[in-house]
Amino acid sequence: MQNGEVMSPQDSKISREEAMEDHKAPCQNQGCSEPTAPPLPPPSPPPAGPPEYPRPRLIFHTQLAHGSPTGRIHGFTNVKELYAKIAEVFNISPSEILFCTLNSHKVDMQKLLGGQIGLEDFIFAHVRGETKEVEVTKTEDALGLTITDNGAGYAFIKRIKEDSTIDRLKAVCVGDHIEAINDQSIVGCRHYEVAKMLKEQPRGLPFTLRLVEPKKAFDMIGMRTKAPKSNEGKLVNGRETLRLRSKGAATVQEVNEFEEQATRKVDDLLESYMGIRDLELATTIVEAGKDKKNPDDFAEALDSVLGDFAFPDVFLFDVWGAIGDVKNGRT
Q1: Which of 12, 221, 280, 303 has CA 20 to 30 A from 64's CA?
Q2: What is the pLDDT of residue 106?
Q3: pTM
């Protein structure tokens, strides 16, 4: 710029471009190469299969069986966490909950919550009511009780055999939690341990049961229910269920007719051999045996997941036969 001239913007642009060309020229004349950007990485291959979408959060409705507003719970993977969620909603201690039923507020063992919940099921929580002590004298080898537990340390009465020793004691009802035997607390014991203790009580000598009955609404007072064997554990709602596991995360599964029938048969055998009912245990046994080719493989698989039970051989053979009957349509 000379003699006070002012460059126009266009002149300035041209001058900059020319200056850049002048700057490049010496390097090109000397054999220099222009710097280049590093090559781009190859594009990632598209993911195989359809895209995965997160399953919506499962929300269940719940009430206290003796009466309460409706609460909503979610985010549990086992029974203990389920009780904790219910307790949080109703501002009670989880230890107050004896057991839960599905779609009925009554002490109905056909509707007892086991290891599965239908996605449309309504959960009723039965909480501690009155405590009572009953003196029992064993007049025969079996008392006529079937024991189960709630998965959180409480064993309770699931069935009373008609005309049995316990059936003649009208103060004892289905749904009563067995809190102590002869003042020895059994809270925290599994149902099979409680059944064994009761079986070992000597004949002719009285012993005391401390029982806790579930809190009842007015229309339930005086109920003494006996669950029919044929419908025990039947899933009542939904093609999909939430499978609760004592170890590991809960999973949503399709209802499988074979597993449902086999589980009921195994649950019947648990009652016959051990005096207990436990749908979660029966389901685990069926899962261990459904793909096995022979009884030895089945027994080995069962020991790997349920070694603490030490099932007798005759029980294992009967269970193997029951699973085979269902597989072959002999129901």
Answers
A1: 280
A2: 92
A3: 0.69
